[in-house]
Amino acid sequence: MPVCALLRQGLSAGPSQGPQEAVQGDGEMVRLTERMAESLPRGVLPKPEARLRGAAAVGNRQPSSTPSKFLDLDLVPSNLWRRGVALVDKGDMEEAAWNFLLGLFMDFGLDGNAMSPVIEAIAGCEANGPVAMALSITTWQNQNQHRLTKERHLGFIEDVCKRLESNASSGASATSTTASSIDQVNRSAFAVGAAKLFRARILGRYHWVTNPLDAHSRTFKAAHQKSADIINTAKTNIDPDRWLTLQYELGYSSWDTSNVRKAKQWLQMVVKSLKKEQRERGAVLNDHWLDTRASAEQKLQMIPMMEQAKRMGRL
């Protein structure tokens, strides 16, 4: 049974506990978690009302000058987007496309912005360049409204992913594990992994738009499982030990498909990684990572309920 259906039935985590006690949270947190599970498409994070901000996250300590092993920790998706727009205005299309790709990789909700700068950046890039190809997945819908169908859109995306993987197979490196900074990332390898995430997110969106409440259907389950399988293959190109975004995506997709063990593993990893960065490096988490951590923690609070459902054969 999908997680959202489990939540609607109010299955308790123990014989004497109700749904709210099972997640050990107040009513607002439970309602937020239910809305998150039932109404949000892929790539959209909830915005909890109460969370630490800025320096409050680490008290009076100063951030360490030691670079984080996580290449996306110090990035802010909205800033990457603004930088991309500014680079388009300056005519630096390759760098603009790279910034757009990073921003959308971290927060796919950014495609709710006007996509004309992204389209312009792609047009100004090298033909068949991996970054531009991956980015084209996010703009095809805007440029093909006159002939837009789910089948055509998903077919285009699948073709792009296949071509990217075919091109990358002849490259020197498949992943970006050796990079010590964002400037050293293997962009070709990263583009393949980002394209896979975009494909999974759009696949999930299509199901939510066409049938958002049919959580029991085989189509619903199959769509989420296919998305999760695609995201899992992105580990071949993007190392989750270096990218917090992929850790969260792996946990989110496992949670969507009721894979309790994997969901717990990856979501705990995200939370522990962020707390360790704060504790050992004095890192000041930006709002994006505070939101991500809050979302991961909320999902983890539902794990006892999911484990109980597994034992009862209802998940």
What order do the helices and strands come in, and which of them pair?
Blueprint: H1 3-9, H2 19-22, H3 27-39, H4 77-90, H5 93-106, H6 116-123, H7 130-143, H8 150-168, H9 187-210, H10 218-233, H11 244-256, H12 260-281, H13 287-301, H14 303-311
Helix pairs in contact: 4-5, 5-6, 5-7, 5-9, 6-7, 7-8, 7-9, 8-9, 9-10, 10-11, 11-12, 12-13
Can you put this structure into words, describing what you see?
With 315 residues, the chain is mainly α. 61% of the residues lie in helices and 0% in strands. The chain is globular and about 55 Å long. About 19% of the residues have low confidence.
- Distance from first to last alpha carbon: 4 Å
Q: How many helical stretches? A: 14
How much helix, percentage-wise, in residues? Answer: 55-70%
- Radius of gyration, in angstroms, nearest whole number: 20 Å
Proportion of residues in β-strands: under 5%
Q: Low-confidence stretches at least 5 residues in length (pLDDT < 50)? A: 4-63
Structural class assignment: mainly alpha
